[in-house]
Amino acid sequence: MSRRVAITGMGVVAPGGIGVTAFWDRITAGRTATRLISSFDPAPFRSRIAAECDFDPAQQGLSAQEIRRLDRAGQFALACTREALADAGLKHGSAAERTGVCMGSAVGCTTRLEEEYTVLSDEGRNWLVDHTYGVPHLYDWFVPSSLAAEVAWEVGAEGPATVVSAGCTSGIDSVGHACELIREGSADVMIAGGAEAPISPITVACFDAIKATSALNEEAESALRPFDRTRNGFVLGEGAAVLVLEELERATARGARIYAEIGGFASRSNAYHMTGLRADGRELGAAITGALDAAGLAPAEVDYVNAHGTATRQNDRHETAAIKHGLGEHAYRTPVSSIKSMIGHSLGAIGSIEVAACALAIRHGLIPPTANLHEPDPELDLDYVPLTARERRVDAALSVGSGFGGFQSAMVLTKHGRRAR
Prior knowledge:
CATH topology of the largest domain: Peroxisomal Thiolase, Chain A, domain 1
Strand content: 15-25%
Number of strands: 16
Oligomer: single chain
Number of domains: 2
CATH superfamily of the largest domain: Thiolase/Chalcone synthase
Distance between the termini: 22 Å
CATH class of the largest domain: Alpha Beta
Order of helices and strands: EEHEEHHEHHHEHEHEEHEHEHEHHEEEE
Shape: globular
């Protein structure tokens, strides 16, 4: 029998709030953090809005050397790791050889890489760049594994360390991979999550080109409208979440607080299109079924679905169909919500942030709402918890993710000590 996995610590950096408490307060109050981009001049772009983090690395305890060495995503990851470790009551280097790291990121150190390319190419005028202008840390920003290395050094982890980069499912996939390492016995503790700081001209330009992001620039606070009839694309975000995962017996033996258990995880590929989705949601539905099977749950035992909910026309249709495929008739009785409506879409980080939201929903018996859902789309006929958080006992939560390239992932979280129904 495979070992059980518990969440015993969390750290979150999110738009509108730094730290787990501020994050939870934001998303349960239904307050949006989307606004006009402030980190650079967005005037030349079609979509000029984003969900930015008001993050001061010095205030978060990072040293001057760490601030210079780390890309913004790495700074987020370090701040989250420190909060998660303190939350779990673990010390640096404890059980080092049995502790591992798995971090997710879709676009890595985009911010610093773009800044450096601008300098090296003399504002893009030189095709052949002069490497002598590069800073010493440029190599680390090029290599995605540096994110896992930084976290491993921070916690003193000497077990498995890796980075998962699977587009917008990177954050949930990294947690899923970490769980499997604990289940199979390769580690007893895993520091897992995702970090992303993609709000830069190159990223905005890329999504502009395919018109995936919202152009409701004059309505920045309400521009991201999952499942709404007037939706017209997602809003780019940034942030990070890091979870401390422990083998359950170890966690209970040391008296750790347990937010939730991770019951099951599954991922699929649609092998169909780089950005397109089949309307029937079959592959994501299969991932939902696989995660439920791994958790030993029937569809009727799911109390809440944390949706991918990007507010693109095809995703919301695809996801609604997938939830019906995975939960059957119970889909119509299950609350569904998208926290992206408040904190934007932080690409490879959002999956881990959403897993944290599910664990908190289980702990507090409160389901975050879908903000900006004023005009329901008649094509989308599930219960999307519009505007206001809903009190409800949550014994089992399902979080789903979908990413460019055809990645489809699902994870089931359950209340610790949950009784079978």
